[in-house]
Design a protein that fits this description.
Layout: H1 28-42, H2 45-52, H3 55-66, H4 69-72, E1 76-80, H5 86-93, E2 98-103, H6 107-117, E3 124-128, E4 157-160, H7 173-183, E5 190-192, E6 195-203, H8 206-234, H9 242-253, E7 258-260, E8 272-278, H10 284-287, E9 289-290, E10 298-304, E11 312-323, E12 341-344, E13 356-365, E14 371-383, E15 391-403, E16 413-414, E17 418-424
Parallel strand pairs: 1-2, 1-4, 2-3, 4-5
Antiparallel strand pairs: 6-8, 6-11, 7-13, 9-14, 10-14, 11-12, 11-13, 14-15, 15-16, 15-17
Helix pairs in contact: 3-5, 8-9
Length: 425
């Protein structure tokens, strides 16, 4: 079963026109739309507080920086998307000799206040602007590059909390990679985080799945009342719009992923890796999603109905981030991290502000005692045309059942292929 394309949910053009985020070569109109739809929320202290109150997030970054002070000592650091500046402050406290804290929004003013209040404003320079456009005061600060052909490569360590829902939403990774290639020392530089991994797994979350269906039904019932009232009271027939309204409501209630804080027991099978990123080597093309045919994009889950409580409500996605020693061939000379750190946004780790994104099936798939249900398919994740910071996710899958332990290949039931498109809002 296929749905119509849902890219039209966001009516505001938020792209430079070629799928790139507007902060890179976007015109003034695109940049204004990008600020209104994306950056403006990060200029609010309440939004910063939400992230700073995420203790799993904070602990991972704090351990990565303050647990590796020998790596930060006397280094030049760049914090991209510094917000209120806490990562930059930690880098200074860890011994960095210079920290550039880059912030696009007016939150930069608050970051300067935080640096001064914590006595690190002599080390941290807050620069307001898009990282794609800034110029570092290299000569003024007495910095030198190891590479005469690339005099701007003066940064030893990048730190950034760039990750969005299901890792890639918001597309901030583009900015990070362009800055990496422009400013970071390629042989000895470090990225914090260093590696990121995306996971999916089938989940049981029937209460929410059914609630979404009920809200859709209630919305359509309300439309019918509206349609009838408008005809009877005002003499205008609005039924011509019912089909478009129904499509719109389906896209919102049924075919958009939902932020969830799932309990560990909701996960019905071992999570499957669908994408990995080495932050020193990943490319802009790799940052743009999970493409059809990507090596890790398929999944195949087998769930024993005797030992696992169903039904299967949908597929959930989340990510992990590692802060560890470089693993790429070009990083042999880079400093080693004696104390790696790790961040998981999965159900096993409790609350994070990222949560999990759940892509709900239209109907739950039952799990039966004595039988094993198999869900096999693939996932694609591609930027919407109208907004380069949002993603459409396509799930393709079939389900089948067989007797648990039966090796004869006898299949009791097999569905046709479902092909469904979702928006990550």
């Amino acid at each position: 079963m296929a749905s119509d394309n849902i890219e039209g949910i966001n009516p505001f053009p938020n792209t430079s026109g070629d799928g790139e985020i507007p902060s890179f070569q976007g015109d003034e109109k695109a940049k204004a739309s990008d600020f209104a739809n994306y950056f403006c929320s990060y200029a609010q202290l309440y939004h910063q507080k939400q992230m700073l109150a995420d203790h799993n997030r904070m602990a991972a970054y704090h351990s990565a920086i303050m647990g590796n002070t020998e790596v930060f000592k006397d280094k030049v650091v760049m914090d991209i998307g510094t917000g209120s500046g806490i990562l930059a402050a930690w880098a200074a406290q860890a011994g960095a000799r210079k920290v550039y804290a880059i912030e696009y929004t007016d939150m930069a003013k608050h970051a300067r206040q935080v640096m001064a209040a914590n006595g690190v404003d002599n080390i941290v320079t807050v620069i307001q602007g898009a990282v794609e456009d800034i110029k570092l005061p290299i000569e003024e600060d007495g910095l030198e590059s190891d590479d005469p052909e690339h005099p701007e490569r003066v940064i030893d360590i990048f730190i950034s909390e760039w990750m969005g829902y299901f890792l890639l939403r918001e597309s901030m990774l583009d900015s990070l990679l362009r800055a990496r290639d422009k400013f970071l020392k390629p042989a000895t530089g470090l990225m914090f985080p260093s590696h990121c991994t995306m996971y999916v797994a089938p989940v049981q979350d029937e209460e929410e799945r059914r609630a979404n269906g009920s809200e859709f039904a209630a919305s359509m019932s309300d439309w019918h009342d509206f349609q009838e009232t408008t005809m009877q009271v005002y003499g205008v027939d609005m039924s011509i719009l019912q089909k478009d309204f129904e499509k719109e409501q389906k896209e919102y209630y049924l075919w958009s992923s939902r932020w969830r804080e799932l309990p560990p027991e909701a996960v019905l099978a071992e999570p499957k890796v669908v994408k990995t990123l080495d932050m020193m080597t990943c490319t802009l093309d790799e940052s743009k999603g999970i493409m059809p045919g990507d090596a890790l994009s398929t999944y195949d889950f087998a769930i024993d109905g005797t030992t696992t409580r169903g039904p299967i409500s949908g597929i959930a996605g989340w990510f992990t981030s590692d802060f560890k020693t470089r693993t790429d061939a070009g990083g042999l000379e880079a400093p080693k991290l004696p104390n790696p750190s790790f961040l998981s946004t999965g159900p096993e780790n409790g609350y994070t502000h990222w949560g999990q994104q759940v892509f709900y099936f239209q109907s739950g798939i039952p799990l039966l005692k004595g039988e094993t249900t198999q869900i096999a398919g693939s996932l694609e994740m591609i930027r919407t045309k109208e907004n380069a910071r949002l993603y459409n996710t396509k799930l393709k899958y079939t389900s089948s059942r067989k007797k648990t332990g039966d090796t004869s290949g006898n299949v009791l039931m097999k569905s046709g292929e479902t092909d469904q498109l979702y928006l990550i809002p």
